[in-house]
Amino acid sequence: MLSNINKILAIVGPTCTGKSRLSVDLSLEFGGEIVNADSMQVYKHFDIGTAKPEKDARDGIPHHLLDIIEPHEEFNAAMFKEWADRAINTIWSRNSLPIIVGGTGLYVRALIYGLFAIDEKKSTKETLKELYHNDPEGFYENLKAIDPEYAMRISYRDERRMVRAMEVYQSTGLTMSEWIQRHGFREPRYEVLMIGLRKTRAELYARIDARVEEMLQRGWVEEVRSLIKAGYDERLKPFAGIGYREILHYLRGSIAYQDMTDEIKKLTRRYAKRQFTWFLKEEGIAWYEYPDDLDSIRQEVTGFLS
128 and 167 in contact (C-beta within 8 Å)? Predict the structure, then answer.
């Protein structure tokens, strides 16, 4: 057994680069357990569109923070940090290696470096939420005028992050980007090896297009139809995820099937670009392509754990 106590491995990068498969490979080789760091995969019942690893593809490896909350329940970076900390300690207690896997950059950063705190006023948050609901695109344009750097990292459909950024600005007079630079994310909380996965743009976009088609063939539309039939409100946070909103439009008859498919592909490509931009700004990530660089990745992990 390698010396992995008090060390963690993180596999990050854009969607469709092979993070889940690499995590299984490394778990099998190094005695690991996987901790999900994808903000959509925590929700129960939202399976196909969130690209959750299927049970038969997990090779009997324990997975943590998958399917842990109901669609109507709140989940955020602070909660992720708390739950992931507990999972990591449980994994260490079994003398196993925690492998953090996901593309939600804020979650990974919160786990490794912690979060900063500001005084919150419920009235301010509720007012901002109402403004967002009245005009999401206008709200985004206002945020972009105040904090263009942070606005470029998120989607106008990401209500929680947009409201939080405006809340920080109104409460402190500082933009979210300034808060991150001045107050947060300085010293790592864990000894961590960060593995980043990437692809050429052409290959990544081709993989994204193929995955969208595969998800639809597996029954993504039926999944959404079943969720609505089960009584889940379309305004719930998971329905704002890429693809789910477009499928809702299709089911209402407001968009054709092919237009829906093309829109999902386009939005996923944009999301991958934002993910890559985020992780490029993070320090200490060793970048590879998978599976081409698997041997080099193994050597890097072996050296880290020895």
Answer: yes
Q: Is 167 helix (H, G, I), strand (E, B) or coil?
A: helix
**Which secondary-structure segment (H or E) carries 11?**
strand 7-12
Residue 1 lies in a domain: no
Angle of helix 105-113 versus helix 77-93 axis, rounded to 10:
60
**Mean local confidence (pLDDT), 277-305:** 96
Q: The CATH number of the domain where 56 resides is what?
A: 3.40.50.300
Q: What is the pTM of this model?
A: 0.82
- Note the pLDDT of residue 177: 85
Domain count, the chain: 3
How is the beta sheet containing 32-36 ordered, strand by strand? 63-64, 32-36, 97-101, 7-12, 191-197, 285-288
DSSP string across 189-254: SSEEEEEEE---HHHHHHHHHHHHHHHHHTTHHHHHHHHHHTT--TTSGGGGSTTHHHHHHHHHTS
Contact (CB, 8 A) for 24 and 61? yes
* Domain membership flag for residue 278: no
Domain membership of residue 72 (yes or no) is: yes
